[in-house]
Each structure stands twice: as C-alpha cells, then as structure tokens.
Amino acid sequence: MQLDIYRRPEPEHKLSFMAVPAGKPIPQEVDNVDWKLVATATELDVDSPSLREYAIDNAAHQIREKGYAITSVTHQVEASD
C-alpha cells in the first residue's frame, strides 16, 4: 500500500505525522489542522507493526479503521531545526 505522509508542528518543538492512502484527500475530521505534505507514495509494509520513521504505530490497522494513521501523542517526534 502506498501512502502520502503529512506533518504538523506540535507544542514543545515536537512533530506529528499522518499517513493517508496515496492520492486520497485528508479526511474531513482532521483537515482543520495545518498539515504539510512531506512525502508521497511511501510504501507501507502491511505486516509491519509501525511506520518507525514517522512514529506511527499500527498504521495498517489505523487506516482500515478510520482511513488514516496518525502519530500517537505519546510518540511525537522531536523537531530538528
């Protein structure tokens, strides 16, 4: 499965990421936030437990349930400016 990856800044110099099936729009319930497209057609190994680079756990399961996968608040990534 190919995914488009979006990023948004969080408080305390952290980042969250969201994965959406490639070519699909951001789901309406999360589209009111400033997401920036950072990667397109990223390959997801559906057997992998996470998208480690983006700190997204259970990505395939999240996408099946809600149409997108997102970084958990407890796993937000340190911004490297």
Short description:
By secondary structure, the chain is mainly beta. It has one helix and seven strands, in the order E-E-E-E-E-H-E-E.
Chain-wise SSE layout:
Elements: E1 2-10, E2 14-21, E3 36-43, E4 50-51, E5 56-57, H1 59-66, E6 69-70, E7 77-78
Antiparallel strand pairs: 1-2, 1-3, 2-6, 2-7, 4-5
Shape: globular
- Point out poorly predicted stretches: none
What is the gyration radius calculated from CA atoms? 12 Å
Percent in strands: 35-45%
Q: Describe the main β-sheet briefly.
A: 5 strands, antiparallel
Helix content: under 10%
Number of strands: 7
Helix/strand structural class: mainly beta
Q: Can you write the helix and strand succession as a string? A: EEEEEHEE
Give the count of helical stretches. 1
Question: Could you tell me the mean pLDDT?
Answer: 86
Task: Tell me the distance between the termini.
Answer: 30 Å
Question: How would you characterize the overall build of this protein?
Answer:
- The chain is mostly beta strands and 81 residues long.
- It is 10% helix and 41% strand.
- It is built from 1 helix and 7 strands.
- The protein has one helix at 59-66; strands spanning 2-10, 14-21, 36-43, 50-51, 56-57, 69-70, 77-78.
- Strands 1, 2, 3, 6 and 7 form a 5-stranded antiparallel β-sheet that branches. Strands 4-5 form a two-stranded antiparallel sheet.
- Strand 4 and strand 5 (56-57) form a beta hairpin.
- It is globular, with a radius of gyration of 12 Å.
